[in-house]
Amino acid sequence: MSENAEGGWPAVDYEQRHWEPAIEVRDSFGPHRASSGPYRAVVPPRIAALDIRLSPETMASSADATAELIRFDTEFGAQDSPVGALLLRAEGTASAAIEGVTSNAQAIALAELEESHEPIANEIAGNARAIELALFLCGSLSEAGQASEDAVVQVQRALMASTRPERRGRWRDQQVWIGGGALGPHRASFVPPHQSRLPELMNDLMQFVRRRDLPALAQIAIAHAQYENVHPFLEVNGRTGRALMQAMLRRGDVTRSIAVPVSAGLLQDTAAYFDALTKYRAGKIDPIVEVFSRASFTAVANSRELIDDLAAVRQSWAARSTSRQGSGARRLIELLERQPVINSRSAIEYLGVTAPNAQLAIDRLVADDILTQVGSTRRNRVWAAREIIDVLDAFAERARRRR
């Protein structure tokens, strides 16, 4: 392996492989059929035992960003508030948006309630569920051997719960590539390692992840870049990697209670993010750590705006609510702050009351202009707290603004 003279981090190597497309691929394109022949695939370095050496400036910004994440988590994570649920939803939405998969907050909330037939909204809703699973499994990343790798596989399986069963829940069994067209890897801009190398590479990466002697945010950024180089699945590698980022933040005690939407910070400057991943392959680790540090500050700032917006909505609701304290309608408001779209079933389950009493609570909130019915059907009715939907859409819009 070649090494970067500045930081001592090895750059990727390359190996020549032979590409032989499937017969049906060759035959389906006529004169433009895919051709067999040699191509170069990346061979990532083994990083399990490497030390992280960064410039003083990068180390300082990484330490400051880590402190900012810890401060934010301490300030808002300990409160019994809906902040955690909204930030988790925001992280899932932003992570998908990095790959151009977008939808509005109401459609995603409908999908979470299993009331949507929009494939993209269902896909993004699955992203939030995968992050929840990653946070639940974060302890598994500390376990030696197969347990930590199984956690990665489970997260990818959750991301693809509703699509392509043959492409989920296992390492890829074929060569993939990025750019250059669909006919073969010869002209690709990036060809990840051959599938035969995946078990060894993922084992090495998990050993790196389990280390406790490295600065947390720098370790997370480098592990993410290495994961993207390995590209272990046929689909949703980026989203799986960013879900695991949240698990590593939790495992490293940077965030203990909430998922800070760092993906929203990455989304604000995707050019720098992708450029840093490219530079990582050349043995330059400072850029990816700097990108994660900036993304952390941006995410916290955006999240604070979301919390301020939520407080304004709560104040507005309190001013115009006509229901008494402790009533079903007042209790249902607490659910709306976490789950801005509800149906009769979710209201019954949350309140623990009969269907008629749940409907009375919903009707009171409609009368107070807190809930609005979605659609005009009289069966399977759904209601939305549009002001919370607006708060989430405003967060997403701020995250999409390019710097």
Q: Write down how many β-strands occur, each being a DSSP E stretch of 2 or more residues.
A: 5
CA radius of gyration is: 23 Å
Helix and strand element order: EHEHHHHHHHHHHHHEHHEEH
User: What distance lies between the first and last C-alpha atoms, to the nearest angstrom?
Assistant: 36 Å
What gross morphology would you assign? globular
CATH architecture of the largest domain: Orthogonal Bundle
Strand content: 5-15%
Main pleated-sheet profile = 3 strands, antiparallel
Give the class-level CATH name of the largest domain: Mainly Alpha
Average pLDDT number: 90
Strand order of the largest sheet: 3-5-4
- Count the DSSP helices: 16
Supply the number of structural domains: 2
**Unreliable residue stretches:** 1-6, 24-32
Helix content: 55-70%
Oligomer: single chain
Can you tell me the CATH superfamily of the largest domain? Fido-like domain
**CATH fold name of the largest domain, please?**
Fic-like fold
SS-based class: mainly alpha
Describe the structure in your own words:
The protein has 403 residues and is mainly alpha-helical. The chain folds into two domains: 13-43 and 53-303, Fido-like domain (Fic-like fold, Orthogonal Bundle); 321-395, Winged helix-like DNA-binding domain superfamily/Winged helix DNA-binding domain (Arc Repressor Mutant, subunit A), CATH 1.10.10.10. It has 16 helices and five strands. The protein has helices spanning 23-28, 56-77, 83-98, 105-112, 119-136, 146-159, 198-210, 216-230, 237-251, 262-267, 270-281, 286-320, 328-338, 344-351, 355-367, 386-400, and strands at residues 13-19, 37-43, 341-343, 372-374, 382-384. It has a three-stranded antiparallel β-sheet. Helix 3 (83-98) crosses helix 5 (119-136), helix 3 packs across helix 16 (386-400) and helix 13 crosses helix 15.
